[in-house]
Amino acid sequence: MSFSDVLPYEWAANVEAKGCDVKRFGWAVLLVAGCALVALGSAPVLYFEGLVWTQAKVPQVEPRPDRARGHWVDDYFLVESLDDHTFAIGEPRYYQGNYSYLLIGADRALLFDAGSGLRDIRPVVRSLTTLPVTVLPSHLHFDHVGALGRFERTALADNAHLRERIVAGELTLTRYEYLGALDRQSPPHFRVDDWWRDGEEVELGGRSVTILHTPGHTPTSVSVWEPRIGRLFVGDFLYPGELYAFLPGASLAAYEKTSRRLLWLLPVDVKLYAAHMQEPPAIPMAPVMAYADLQALLGVLASRSAASFDIQGRYPQVYPIRGPMTLATGFPWNLR
Ligand SMILES: [Zn+2]
Question: Could you tell me the CA-to-CA distances from 35 to 25, 32, 43 in Å, in that order?
Fold first, then answer.
């Protein structure tokens, strides 16, 4: 083989004139190909670092919306009663519009998601109950773990990989599990008191909930199921916006498997309470999704490669699902 076999004539002549040899050229090609493979294999991490590089900033409190469902307990937190013992605690002035949920039993309360941490959620929770509180994050991204370790107990999804990282009773989150560099936050460490298994029933006193492990958005995502009332608190698995299935830890196979399981398990009239409100100009309120939204999500997950969707973007690729809900995915080999 000579340079003229693989390069344009002028280029090959130039290379040969400079005394390069085939061996050196081969190494250069291998190096470029290797870098390309590493980049493709690490796309979720590289994309995240690109976001941090270009967009990371300390979040500012957004202007207070003119209208909202619920009542303001201060100038930041919005509380909406789902019933006499269940409250949605919204942060519509945080740019991600997070909602956490407080479920109060006769003996203790469960706080599902710990707030974004931009403001302290504890006084709001204490204004709603004097009972001991166990806080359970739907997953470990920065916008859901603000007050972990700051209530009586902290619970996590039982997971061997998380358990083996406990040091002196505390878990320290990793950069790509937490993703808080986007808000210029460092990964926190916090005490873990309870590890809740998939299917475990948690008794709050005259009120029990079932913990469901619902991986997809992250490997250790959980949901809280209340069969007596027909409510599933579903975290970031589903919400009226762009579902992120392209960042480190996301898995499309897990997303699909969990969707099938939930559709099999849940009644068709289930209410799915999500962790992010619909973006303005929608009125801030606890985001409620329906069984049909879950069906539509599975429809897209199961037929992405076959169907002709109106896909937006290259990375991530954004698929329409239903209403304001879309699915943002990366390369299939990163998301198995
Ligand atoms: Zn989130």
Answer: 15, 5, 12
Looking at residue 312, the DSSP 8-state letter turns out to be B
- The structure tokens listed for 302 are 């199961």
Backbone angles phi, psi at 234, to 5 degrees: -115, 0
Q: What is the 30 CA–ligand 1 centroid distance (Å)?
A: 40
How close is the Cα of 280 to the center of ligand 1, in Å? 16
When pLDDT is cut at 50, 70 and 90, the band that residue 1 belongs to is very low
Domain that holds residue 321: 71-334
Q: Which residues of 114-129 are buried (b: 16+ CB within 10 A; e: fewer)?
A: bbbbbbebbebbeebb
Cα(98) to ligand 1 centroid in Å equals 7
> Ligand 1 center to residue 239 CA distance, Å?
10
Q: Is the pLDDT reported for residue 2 higher than 50?
A: no
Q: How far, in Å, is the centroid of ligand 1 from the Cα of 144?
A: 6
Sheet holding 242-245, edge to edge: 242-245, 325-329, 317-322
Read off the pLDDT of residues 68-102 as tens digits, 9 standing for 90 and up: 899 999 999 999 999 999 999 999 999 999 999 99
Q: Where are the alpha helices (DSSP H) in the chain?
A: 3-6, 9-17, 22-41, 43-55, 122-128, 160-163, 175-178, 252-265, 291-303
Query: Ligand 1 centroid to 25 CA: how many Å?
Result: 47
My answer on whether 25 and 86 are in the same domain is no
Residues 128 and 22 both lie in one domain: no
For residue 29, is pLDDT > 80? no
Between the CA of 141 and the centroid of ligand 1 the distance, in Å, is 6
CATH number at residue 111: 3.60.15.10
The pLDDT of residue 40: 60
For residue 176, is it within any domain?
yes
A 10 A CB-CB count for 259 gives 23
